[in-house]
Design brief:
Layout (H helix, E strand, L loop, with lengths): L1 H17 L3 E4 L2 H11 L4 E4 L14 H9 L2 E4 L9 H6 L7 E2 L11 H12 L6 H4 L32 H18 L4 H26 L6 E6 L3 H7 L2 E7 L8 H13 L4 E4 L6 H7 L5 E4 L13 H17 L1
Helix pairs in contact: 2-7, 7-8, 8-12
């Protein structure tokens, strides 16, 4: 009788015991890092479509449900994904979420500092006049001064932190700790995945650095000012951007300035982005021999899996190499 009762008890409890942690992620690069640790032991629900941009994203009821149903929400932060602030607060998920920008150990870049460096590096005193009016902010002040702005704020912290392998490792460690606390039965699995991720990341980083060293003196222009983590990590030669923020189209004056920069700096490539219309790039390059290619900062075509972040780094470095080489 006891054996029957025990068997019935196990059968009743097993669905609960086998339930996977549910992790809601904001954008695909976040999902890539989470997947490296979670493997097949957690359910990842991504909020922003892989083909959409977080810069102009609007929440739908189905997205709100992902937040409500999640054990943890992993996002980059308010300066990139302002649309998540209220939903996280309303769902009572703010305190339990993992905000990448706020994690201890992050190496953050400040937009104002980057452009100050550009003035010295390229001796170009007019290129970023619209940035000089902003005060420099300390790295952890990214939550101040955002009222009244849509998209992300280009006077403070650069939120594109997933483009730094070092920062990816910081998130991987935070995700590991959270999954271990949510699902202690699989703690060794998550910890083992972290060890594999760190080892694989070190090897991939060295491989990419070696490849990009061949083109790190070649000048180029990007679509928008969002690649500094990758560029500084690998020592690449960015001499400008088409638009300060993807949701703003450059005016005639800016177009003329960019054409001047292309000629003056002997630019070899002007990158577009698959999330935005390439029409402005075509207009800029009419009548020139300058190459153009898409540069995908979100890895929209990368297949999800435990090695997705490595594939993303491979893809991004390959896009640079193909146009600069």
């Amino acid at each position: 009788m006891n054996k029957v009762f025990l068997a019935l008890g196990v059968s009743v409890l097993s669905p609960l015991a086998l339930a996977k942690p549910v992790i809601a992620t904001s954008i695909k690069p976040v999902s890539m890092v989470v997947a490296a640790i979670a493997g097949d032991k957690a359910d990842i629900q991504q909020i922003v479509s892989s083909t959409a941009s977080p810069h102009d994203f609007a929440m739908r009821p189905s997205d709100l449900k992902k937040i409500t149903d999640a054990d943890t929400v992993v996002w980059v932060g308010e300066s990139l994904e302002r649309f998540l602030e209220k939903p996280l607060e309303n769902a009572g998920k703010e305190a339990s979420s993992i905000e990448w920008l706020a994690l201890e150990g992050m190496k953050l870049h400040n937009f104002a500092e980057e452009h100050h460096d550009d003035h010295e590096k390229h001796d170009d005193h007019e290129k970023h006049d619209d940035h000089e009016k902003h005060d420099d902010h300390e790295h952890h002040d990214e939550h101040e001064g955002h009222e009244g702005h849509e998209g992300h704020d280009h006077s403070g912290i650069d939120p594109h932190v997933w483009l730094s392998p070092d920062n990816a490792l910081v998130l991987a460690k935070a995700v590991t700790a959270r999954l271990v606390s949510l699902d202690s039965a699989n703690a060794d699995y998550y910890k083992g995945n972290l060890v594999s991720f760190e080892k694989g990341l070190g090897a991939k980083d060295a491989e990419i650095r070696n490849a990009l060293n061949k083109v790190n003196k070649v000048p180029y222009i990007v679509f928008h000012d969002g690649y500094s983590y990758f560029e500084q990590h690998y020592g690449l030669q960015n001499v400008g951007e088409i638009t300060v923020s993807p949701e703003r189209k450059p005016g005639a004056k800016k177009v003329a300035e960019i054409r001047h920069e292309i000629e003056e700096n002997k630019v070899q490539c002007v990158f577009s982005e698959p999330q935005f219309s390439p029409a402005i790039v075509k207009t800029l390059l009419e009548g020139s021999n300058v190459k153009t290619a898409p540069l995908d900062p979100l890895g929209s075509q990368i297949k999800m899996g435990t090695n997705a972040y490595f594939s993303f780094l491979d893809s991004l470095s390959g896009q640079f190499l193909n146009c600069l080489g």
